[in-house]
From TrEMBL:
Biological source species: Stakelama sediminis
Protein's UniProt name: Maleylacetoacetate isomerase
GO biological processes: glutathione metabolic process; L-phenylalanine catabolic process
GO terms of molecular function: glutathione transferase activity; maleylacetoacetate isomerase activity
Domain GST N-terminal: 2-83
Family statement drawn from the similarity comment of this UniProt entry: Belongs to the GST superfamily. Zeta family.
Keyword Isomerase attached: yes
Superkingdom, natural source: Bacteria
UniProt KW keywords: Isomerase
Amino acid sequence: MSDLLLYDYFRSSAGYRVRIALAMKGLSYRRHPVQLLPGEQRQPDYLARNPQGLVPALDIGGAVLTQSLAILDWLDRRYPEPRLLPDEPEARARQYAMALAIACDIHPIDNLRVLQYLDRELQVAKPDRDAWYAHWIVEGLTALERMAGDGRFLGGEEPGLADICLVPQLYNARRFSVPLDAFPKLVAIDAAATALPAFAAAHPDRCEEASGA
């Protein structure tokens, strides 16, 4: 039995990132779904694992890791092949910047708890909430399209950390019907990545609870 246990929600962008990385590294793991909509992430037993009440959390046997980019960093150091980030300092910084543009500047503004706050506390109408979502996605992807190079992936000729962040973000953009025609580089990179077995294996539709969504 694997020592790795992933606490995850199938449509979580952050959880999706970790599933991709685990598949890229060829690691077996057990998966424990955390149902975000009814609020399982706020129950005391889960908060004991992750005080932020967010997914994912990765139990590595003796410790629980949180925050997807921190988990990806641990995976890259613990299981160094294939590399998610290059060693060369400038290339590493460039790819990190693209990953952070997604994980820190786009995703947090549009994640479930923010959308629920807009709905429940501020009573924002659904069309206005969806416009909020699309605005921040388009603003972030516009910058990322400019940052993308001419390689097959954001990481160059092989997928890396930035691509692991990009694919879940575009998946969610499509779920909310955000037009992507203005981002041909990103759409092409997404298509190249999702065709790879590791990315395909991590897709939300492959998760056990997807059939009931």
